[in-house]
Amino acid sequence: MATFPTINGTEVFRLPPPDYGPLDFDNPKQQKKLEHYLIFGLGAPLALIALLQRYYTKIFLSKGLQIDDVFMFLGWLSSVLTQALLIVSIAEGGMCAHSWEMSLADFQRYSLIGYLCGPIYQLCNGFIKLSLLSFYLHISPQRWFRIAVWLTIGIVTAYTVIITFMMWFLCNPPRKAFDFKVEGGSCTDAAVLYMATAVSNIVTDVILFVLPIPMVYNLHMPKIQKFGAIVVFAIGSLTVATSVTRLVYLPVVLASTDVSWDSAPANIWTFIEANLFVICGSMPTLRKFFKHFMPRIVGSSGASHYGTTSYGQHQQSNTLSRVRKGRSQYAQFPEDNATELERFSDDENKSGGTVVVGNASTEGLRDDHSERAILQTQTFTVQYSS
C-alpha cells in the first residue's frame, strides 16, 4: 500500500516547500475564492432567468417546447451541477487551496469532485451545442445547410460521448483517479485528453457561430433587425473567447504539481462559460418575449401588411402575382414563432405554389420588411386593366 508523509499527525498528499511557513489545515490559504462565489452567485441566477424566459416564451407565446428546449434544460442542469460541486469543494477547503495544506482525505475528496465535474461539464457543453444545432434545423430548408447542421450534430454527439466515456474511465480501475491508496492499475495521459477536449470544443464553437451567418445575411427583414440577429450570434461567440482563455491556462494546470491551487484561475472561466452557454442559448427568444411585454419599445413586424389589400379597392387595375417555389425555397413562416430568426416549418411548404392577389401599385411589390422568411423566389407579374 502506498505511504504518504505526515505533518503534525495529519497525513498529507505531499510536503510543502521548505519556505512555505506554518500550515493551517482548518483554514487553508485559497486563491480566487471570492471570485468563484461572486460569479456563481450572479451568473447562475442570470442563467436561470434566461432559461425561464425561454420556456415562458415557448410555452405561452409559441407552439410549445421542442427537442432543442430539452437539450437546453439538460445543459443547464449539467452547468449548475458542475458549479455547485466546485463551490462545495471550495467551501470545504479543497479547490483553490494548496495540495499540501489539506489532509490526504480532503485532497482525495477534492480529486473525487474534480473527477465527477470533468465529464459532467463535457455533457453540459454537448447538450447546449445540440440545442443550438436543433434550433438551426428550423432556420432554413436548404439542402446544403441542413446537411451541414446534421453533420455537425453527428460530430458533436460523437466526440461528447467518446470524451465523456474516456474521462469516466481515465484510470483502470476508475477509482484510482481519486483514491491514491489503490494498489496497481494504471491511468492514461490526461494531458492529451484534456487538450484534445479543449481544441474540439473551440472548433465546434466556431462552427456554431459561422454556420448560420449565410442564412442571417439572406433573411428578408429590415437591416436593423438583421443586424440584431447577427449581434445575437456575436454574443453567442463569447463562448469561443472563454474556451480559448481556458485553453491558455490548461498547459499550466496539466504540468502543475499543485493542481488544486493552480487550476483556480482556469475554473473561474469554467464558471463564466457554463453560465454564458445557457444565457446565449436562450437569446433567440428574447425578441418575442419583449415584443409581448413591451410592444411599443420592440415594435412589431411589418409582415402583417403582406397581401392585405381588399378586393373593393382599385377595381380598375389588378395584379396577379404568382410565387413559384423551387425545391429549396420557402413559403412564409408561421405567425407565432418564438425566435428572432423565424423558423421554417415543413408543414408550411407542401403546396406547389402560392397565389397572392393584391394592389397593382408598386408599393405592394416592394420589400415589405417581413421577417418571416428567407425569400428565395421567382416572381412573375401579369398586369391587366378592365
Q: What does this protein structure show overall?
A:
Keywords: Membrane, Transmembrane, Transmembrane helix. The chain crosses the membrane at residues 37-57, 69-90, 110-135, 147-170, 190-215, 227-248, 268-286. Residues 341-350 have a biased composition (Basic and acidic residues). Belongs to the SAT4 family. This is Rhodopsin domain-containing protein. This protein has 386 residues and is mainly α. It folds into two domains: 6-16 and 24-293, Rhopdopsin 7-helix transmembrane proteins (Up-down Bundle); 302-385, no CATH class. It is built from twelve helices and seven strands. The protein has helices spanning 33-60, 67-91, 104-136, 143-168, 190-210, 213-217, 223-236, 238-254, 259-262, 264-281, 286-293, 295-298, and strands at residues 6-7, 10-11, 171-172, 186-187, 317-324, 353-359, 378-385. It has a three-stranded antiparallel β-sheet with strand order 6-5-7, with no helix packed on it. A two-stranded antiparallel sheet has the order 1-2. A hairpin with a 2-residue loop joins strand 1 and strand 2 (10-11). The longest helix has 33 residues, at 104-136. It is elongated and about 70 Å long. The termini are far apart. Residues 301-340 and 342-375 have low confidence and may be disordered.
